[in-house]
Write a sequence for this structure.
């Protein structure tokens, strides 16, 4: 299936459940055009934009500098609400995971990871995933649909709501906890590139959410045709879910490698706009016991990446029910990382966050689907 066909088949709904048009996710030009049907002067669109992205307004009634009759029309025909929060879980390490319901009832997860000098929001791009990577919990949930640009932005805006990071009399919008965004949640961002790009452009817009592109990372499993396009149009940091140093091994755990093998993937990485020793690509490598964690695998990885300015994030496998994989032990992870470091690579071992609430890398899956699967398993056991 072509990317265009994929986008059409799994498209996000254009309106909410009440038939209202979402204003979140529209570019300034699109917002002006949409509101022009009401014969409004252009400055009204700028006011609405300011309320949405600078003040964090959740309803039109709060937009005090708009005429009352205009606010009534906007409320009837348009939406700027946040997703419904189904659950909020807080890990012992401070990580927060939200299960959010979109206007049509579909659910996704977003995760906020606080650290000493930054706070990172892991954002989803799809409901489910089509890639079926063997070690990823999200991959066991079939792809339902893409998220619209408004639904991607709503995750960031919801996090700002919870963290109290909209300007107010008591908050000059300084010292934010949410500083970084990673497109590493549910789904493959480059299979929903158009919507992801629209959302990230508003994130990066100084008059939008004002998050620097240097603080945004997009992670892909290797959708080669969109990698260079992403660099040219967005200029965000690129992370590649690699996880194996050979085509044979990678294809066995990541079926996408059959379509976009390592040679094609690495060629795209070499041509990523702005690539340099200062601005490197991050390669993610999950450590699976007795699968991809041998010294030989590390040495193959050194050879594979030798021409690409990069760092390698070593990720201890985060278990989930029924995964069938185990995490490599600490000694094995340490030995693997040392081979990479001795070859001159920056190879930090990522400290798992949010494991106790299934919020760590590779563990995200809509709770409704997770609970349904558990119920079916329990029912099968009861009748056996």
């Amino acid at each position: 299936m072509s990317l265009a066909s994929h986008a059409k088949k799994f498209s996000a709904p254009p309106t909410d459940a009440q038939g209202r048009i979402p204003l979140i996710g529209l570019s300034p030009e699109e917002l002006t055009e949409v509101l022009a049907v009401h014969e409004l002067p252009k400055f009204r669109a700028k006011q609405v934009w300011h309320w949405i992205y600078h003040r964090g307004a959740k309803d039109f009634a709060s937009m005090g500098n708009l005429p009352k009759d205009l606010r009534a029309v906007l409320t009837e025909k348009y939406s700027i609400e946040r997703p419904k929060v189904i659950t909020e879980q807080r890990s012992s390490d401070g990580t927060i995971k939200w299960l959010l319901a979109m206007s049509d009832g579909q659910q996704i997860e977003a995760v906020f990871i606080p650290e000493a000098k930054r706070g990172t929001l892991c954002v989803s791009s799809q409901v489910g995933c089509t890639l079926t990577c063997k070690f990823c919990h999200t991959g066991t949930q079939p792809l339902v649909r893409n998220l619209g640009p408004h639904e991607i932005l709503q995750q960031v805006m919801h996090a700002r709501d919870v963290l109290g990071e909209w300007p107010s009399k008591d908050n000059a919008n300084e010292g934010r906890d949410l500083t970084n965004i990673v497109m590493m949640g549910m789904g493959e961002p480059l299979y929903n590139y158009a919507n992801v790009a629209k959302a990230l452009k508003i994130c990066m817009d100084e008059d939008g959410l004002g998050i620097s592109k240097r603080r945004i990372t997009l992670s892909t499993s290797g959708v080669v045709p969109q990698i260079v396009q992403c660099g040219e149009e967005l200029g965000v940091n690129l992370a590649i879910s690699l996880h194996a140093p050979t085509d044979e091994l990678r294809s066995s755990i990541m079926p996408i490698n059959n379509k976009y093998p390592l040679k094609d993937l690495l060629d795209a990485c070499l041509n990523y706009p702005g690539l340099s020793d200062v601005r490197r690509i991050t390669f993610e490598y999950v450590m699976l016991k007795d699968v991809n964690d041998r010294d030989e695998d590390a040495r193959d990885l050194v050879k594979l990446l030798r021409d690409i300015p990069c760092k390698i994030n070593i990720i201890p496998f985060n278990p989930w029910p029924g995964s069938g994989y185990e995490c490599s032990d600490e000694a094995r992870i340490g030995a693997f990382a040392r081979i990479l470091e001795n070859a001159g690579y920056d190879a930090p071992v990522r400290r798992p966050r949010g494991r106790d609430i299934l919020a760590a890398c590779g563990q995200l899956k809509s709770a409704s689907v997770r609970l349904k699967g558990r119920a079916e398993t329990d029912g099968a056991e009861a009748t056996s």
The first helix runs from residue 3 to 9. The domain at 17-79 is CATH 1.10.150.530 (DNA polymerase; domain 1).
